[in-house]
């Protein structure tokens, strides 16, 4: 995938108003200080997840040349600094030589099989066969600790040379690489359990996550990953040599234009891109395109397409590391990169980490008001708001990089406009909606998960975000569909003994007996979202008429018919929507009576078809509700005023052309139900989202007119 924002103006030293993704990444990399160790850009994070109550350790795999033994020993407390201190570069890509000598415990089999053979081959390939590191490998083989070969993947460690603890002494050791297990005698161990057994360490809360290779000779332990020959080799493999290590490029070859800096140079190659991490941002843009590459006798010439010069390659590698460390956040529980870019003048990257945190917080904070206060207090943001944000939402499994969605050229002012609109609209829905922010959208659309916790249909939430940021049209019917589905899935999950899916909707707060408050939150948030999108002029058609902007009413009056009418006018409901709203209020009234009779699941809710209800089905529902009101002897003055309100806005009950869709019918019915929940709960001083308790229907109904 290639993300284009505009063709760049050369060179990188001059700030251009628009950049494509690789140039922006290279620009960030060019800002790295001159004394920066290029290997830091290749350091990886651990894939192993460590719980808060667990303590993690790294251990040494020591090849003792004097005693001709191999030991697993000396655990040291793990921290992020360990990764840099000992040079953890992850596993080499599958097609390359496995030459890295520091591995996660789950990759222990590499250190026990092909690493030493492949490391020796890599040294020869880089013309370093005379190095001290190469001599160490020869000494290890001479001591009969390892066996090497002449091809990639050959070689192994002599497992019979492992120094076993007393409890395992004398047993044979075999590696089952395909099962990622090690057998000692008749016992099978997973890799971490094997390390634990070798150390005779019984505390299961202590985790062993990293293995560091070393040799022991003449009384000293030499950590190979800290040995300069090894670091030089890794730099050469990744084209990150220091100036005194570089072999000068020949000027006799063909000159090409570098895709990134747009300059004509020698030694401009597409093969540099093969050195990029398979899980980093540099893999986002396409590196080989047959359709635009010349075909020669030797095959397609990919250098015609995305060839880059050595300097830009190094900037891209450094930029990728910087982005991973300082620009990473999350949207909808998926990883995301936030990349700010100046518009009118040079953009200062000194405070870029703070800006990224503010953008990330926009998706995490519970209220837009909270985010706006923070941003409006930031002098740099308010005085220099003319920059755009590029957002890349992605997923990686450690071996590949998948882009889920991209939001390109989102102005910072657009963020401000969206958050101010959310603040305004949600404020008009108080006390039914205590607050709202961008993050609420993630909690509004059901997202199914696999058993492993992977989100299956998160793309539709990301599409909503993209439309919101980019100003694309959104079908109002899509929102009504999502609202009905959210209510259907949520109520179904809350009826179960244990919630087993759609956790993104925050259902745990309402399980097992707070269904009404879930309905209230969900409906009011959708009401707010639709109004926000209409205010931003990105709905395909107006849903609400312009509201009258009436003043908020006293909470004690929210259950009165006058307050209902004012609420409906303030929200801009159509006549048909108002009728359905009153029907929803009547359904809630029936639900309260059922709750008082001991039917805590409120069976009347089962009469609502969340897959959609036609006008004729709405009429049948209305008659069913009337029957239930008679059954529970609930035909008091308040019920009659609700019925009168339904007829006033709906007209006589006969088949006629109905302007609302089936899912819109359900939404407006449930909006009346949700209103009644909030009106009754308001008397209890209930706080929304997390502190909800089902209101006492007996006392609540007693307060109705």
UniProtKB/TrEMBL annotation:
User: What InterPro entries does this protein's entry cite?
Assistant: CRISPR-assoc_prot_Cas8b (IPR013389)
Top-rank taxon of the source lineage equals: Bacteria
- List every stretch annotated Disordered: 686-705
What name has this protein been given in UniProt? CRISPR-associated protein
Q: Which organism is it from?
A: Geobacillus thermocatenulatus
Kindly list the organism's lineage. Bacteria, Bacillati, Bacillota, Bacilli, Bacillales
């Amino acid at each position: 995938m290639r993300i284009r924002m505009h063709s760049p103006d050369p060179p990188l030293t001059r700030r251009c108003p628009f950049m494509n993704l690789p140039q922006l990444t290279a620009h960030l990399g060019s800002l790295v200080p001159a004394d920066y160790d290029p290997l830091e850009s290749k350091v990886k994070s651990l894939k192993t997840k460590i719980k808060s109550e667990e303590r993690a350790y790294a251990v040494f795999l020591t090849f003792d040349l004097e005693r001709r033994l191999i030991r697993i020993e000396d655990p040291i407390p793990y921290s992020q600094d360990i990764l840099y201190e000992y040079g953890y570069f992850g596993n080499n890509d599958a097609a390359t030589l496995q030459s890295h000598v520091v591995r996660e415990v789950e990759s222990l089999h590499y250190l026990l099989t092909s690493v030493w053979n492949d490391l020796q081959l890599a040294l020869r390939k880089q013309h370093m066969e005379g190095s001290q590191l190469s001599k160490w490998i020869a000494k290890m083989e001479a001591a009969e600790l390892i066996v090497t070969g002449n091809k990639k993947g050959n070689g192994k460690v002599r497992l019979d040379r492992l120094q076993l603890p007393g409890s395992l002494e004398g047993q044979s050791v075999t590696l089952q690489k395909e099962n990622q297990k090690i057998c000692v005698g008749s016992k099978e161990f997973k890799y971490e359990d094997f390390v634990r057994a070798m150390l005779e360490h019984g505390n299961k809360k202590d985790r062993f996550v990293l293995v560091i290779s070393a040799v022991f000779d003449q009384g000293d332990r030499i950590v190979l990953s800290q040995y300069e020959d090894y670091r030089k080799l890794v730099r050469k493999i990744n084209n990150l040599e220091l100036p005194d290590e570089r072999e000068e490029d020949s000027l006799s070859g063909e000159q090409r234009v570098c895709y990134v800096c747009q300059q004509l140079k020698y030694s401009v190659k597409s093969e540099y891109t093969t050195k990029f991490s398979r899980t980093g941002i540099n893999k986002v843009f396409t590196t080989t395109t047959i359709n635009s590459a010349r075909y020669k006798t030797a095959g397609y010439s990919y250098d015609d397409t995305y060839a880059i010069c050595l300097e830009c390659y190094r900037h891209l590698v450094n930029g990728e590391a910087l982005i991973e460390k300082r620009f990473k956040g999350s949207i909808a529980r998926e990883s995301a990169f936030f990349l700010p870019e100046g518009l009118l003048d040079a953009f200062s990257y000194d405070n870029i980490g703070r800006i990224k945190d503010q953008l990330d917080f926009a998706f995490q904070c519970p209220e837009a008001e909270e985010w706006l206060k923070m941003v409006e207090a930031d002098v740099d943001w308010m005085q220099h708001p003319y920059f755009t944000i590029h957002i890349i939402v992605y997923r990686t499994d450690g071996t590949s990089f998948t882009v889920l969605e991209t939001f390109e050229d989102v102005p910072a002012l657009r963020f401000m406009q969206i958050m101010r609109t959310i603040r305004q609209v949600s404020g008009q829905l108080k006390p039914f909606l205590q607050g709202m922010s961008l993050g609420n959208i993630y909690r509004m659309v059901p997202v199914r998960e696999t058993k492993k916790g992977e989100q299956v249909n998160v793309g539709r939430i990301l599409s909503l975000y993209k439309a919101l940021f980019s100003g694309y049209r959104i079908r109002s019917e899509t929102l009504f569909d999502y609202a009905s589905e959210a209510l259907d899935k949520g109520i179904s999950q809350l009826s179960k003994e244990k919630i087993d899916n759609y956790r993104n909707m925050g259902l745990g707060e309402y399980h097992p007996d707070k269904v009404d408050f879930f309905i209230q939150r969900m409906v009011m948030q959708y009401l707010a979202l639709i109004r926000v999108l209409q205010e931003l002029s990105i709905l395909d058609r107006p849903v609400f008429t312009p509201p009258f902007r009436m003043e908020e009413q006293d909470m004690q009056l929210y259950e009165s018919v006058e307050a209902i009418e004012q609420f409906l006018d303030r929200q801009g409901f159509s006549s048909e929507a108002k009728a359905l709203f009153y029907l929803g209020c009547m359904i809630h009234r029936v639900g309260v009576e059922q709750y008082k009779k001991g039917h805590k699941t409120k069976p009347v809710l089962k009469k609502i078809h969340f897959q959609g209800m036609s006008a004729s089905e709405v009429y049948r529902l209305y008659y069913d509700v009337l029957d239930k009101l008679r059954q529970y002897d609930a035909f008091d003055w308040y019920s009659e005023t609700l019925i009168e309100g339904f007829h006033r806005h709906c007209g006589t009950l006969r088949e006629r052309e109905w302007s609302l869709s089936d899912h819109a019918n359900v939404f407006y019915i449930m909006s009346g139900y949700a209103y009644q929940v909030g009106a009754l709960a308001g008397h209890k001083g209930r706080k929304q989202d997390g502190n909800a308790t089902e209101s006492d229907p007996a006392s609540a109904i007693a307060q109705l007119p």
